[in-house]
Amino acid sequence: MLGTVVVGIGTAGRVRIRDLLSPLSSSASEKMTVKGFVSRRSLGEEQGVKQISLEEALNREDIEVAIVSTENTSHEDQIRRFLEAGKHVCVEYPMALSYTAAVDLWDLAQQKGKVLHEEHIELLTADFKQLKKDVAGKNIEEGTLHFTGGPLQGGFGFPSFSGIARLTWLVELFGELTVKTASLVEEKENRYMKLTAQLLTQDQRPLTWIEERGPGLSRAKNINFRFDTCTMEQLPIVPREPVGLFMQDLNLFAQKLLGQVPPAQLQAERRRILHCLELADRIQQLSQESA
Ligand SMILES: NC(=O)C1=CN([C@@H]2O[C@H](COP(=O)(O)OP(=O)(O)OC[C@H]3O[C@@H](n4cnc5c(N)ncnc54)[C@H](O)[C@@H]3O)[C@@H](O)[C@H]2O)C=CC1
Ligand SMILES: C=CC1=C(C)/C(=C/c2[nH]c(/C=C3N=C(/C=C4\NC(=O)C(C)=C4C=C)C(C)=C\3CCC(=O)O)c(CCC(=O)O)c2C)NC1=O
To answer: What GO cellular component entries does it have (predicted)?
Structure first.
């Protein structure tokens, strides 16, 4: 059994503990067992699981795996510590708030011979899986992905990083991209922000990504994809799948821990993750230059 610690008890961390306590039967995650959790607050217990200190989590030999579910600004440091301590790491996206930090972390994981896995539940949703099928084989001429949501608490980093899931959608659908322009409108007093990035596909087709957050904005993604043969103006409407998103991700991570994921798939994932973080970095740079 792979002893596991969960770090950070927010929405994601609680779901991680829940899933570890009742893994999907006959799945790789049955090989994981939760040994404790780490929090900066004194919580004592969570779902019957005991709080332990970060030091204990790093030093205990029966803990081989860490799931990092804290706010984004602390991911890099926590991943580094757990990898240095010889643990495998699963981190909620984004793994870091700069491209160079992410490259360093992947190098460290390789050097230590440990699995580094970045969760991407946005790729596991039923609507995305259908969208990917619908887009396959079509030629994009121009497209927009407009995300709206409520304001984020502090610690989530620049919006191209906290919104990496949208960038990851675009890259999964249309291939590697370049950034043409980017700008950020921020009204701190209103807790409002809007990031607009102009991207280009390898065929020089324009894609616009808008990430907009403010009070009263509900969590939604609007698309407008113009292809040579048709236009898509809404996400496919499909029922939710029976297995939860974080549970699907846990299974994928567990399969990596058990060596069941082909190297080519691991490499492709790593390349996509680094590409998206490089785009996020460039978007941040251009936004700050244009400000
Ligand atoms: N909630 C979701 O559905 C998803 C979340 N994620 C990722 O999971 C991670 C955690 O997100 P959530 O659980 O939703 O956030 P959250 O805000 O519910 O939880 C974050 C945890 O960090 C603690 N925290 C935040 N700032 C702190 C500070 N400055 N000092 C001490 N403690 C602090 C909070 O108390 C909480 O325990 C993020 O990286 C996010 O991008 C990724 C995909 C989906
Ligand atoms: C209800 C309040 C609610 C909160 C506070 C919330 C937080 C939240 N959801 C996220 C992603 C996400 N959250 C979800 C889904 C959910 N996540 C949930 O907490 C719930 C209940 C669902 C519904 C099934 C998905 C699928 C993602 C991946 C990114 C995406 O596709 O939008 C993220 C990561 C950053 C981001 O991509 O925006 C945060 C911080 N999501 C919420 O819905």
So the answer is: cytosol
Q: 């792979």: which residue's tokens?
A: 2
Identify the nearest ligand to the CA of 151 by its number.
Answer: 2
State the alpha helices, DSSP H only, in 147-190. 159-162, 164-174
| C-alpha triplet 33, 39, 41: angle, nearest 5° | 145
- CATH classification of the domain holding 116: 3.40.50.720
**Which CATH number fits the domain that encloses residue 235?**
3.30.360.10
Query: What digits encode the pLDDT tens for the residues 159-198?
Result: 999 999 999 999 999 999 999 999 999 999 999 999 999 9
Q: How many Å lie between the centroid of ligand 1 and the Cα of residue 20? A: 18
Q: Which residues are annotated as a binding site for Zn(2+)?
A: 275-276
Cα-to-centroid distance, 72 and ligand 1 (Å):
7
Residues 45 and 166 in one domain: no
For residues 163 and 26, state if they share a domain: no
Q: Is the pTM of this model over 0.95?
A: yes
**What domain range is 198 assigned to?**
123-242+279-290
Query: Which ligand 1 atom sits closest to the C-alpha of 13?
Result: 13
Burial class (CB in 10 A: 0-12, 13-18, 19+), 158: buried
Q: Which atom of ligand 2 is least distant from the CA of 11?
A: 19
Instruction: Look at the chain and report how many structural domains it folds into.
Output: 2
Instruction: For residue range 104-131, list pLDDT tens digits in order.
Output: 999 999 999 999 999 999 999 999 999 9
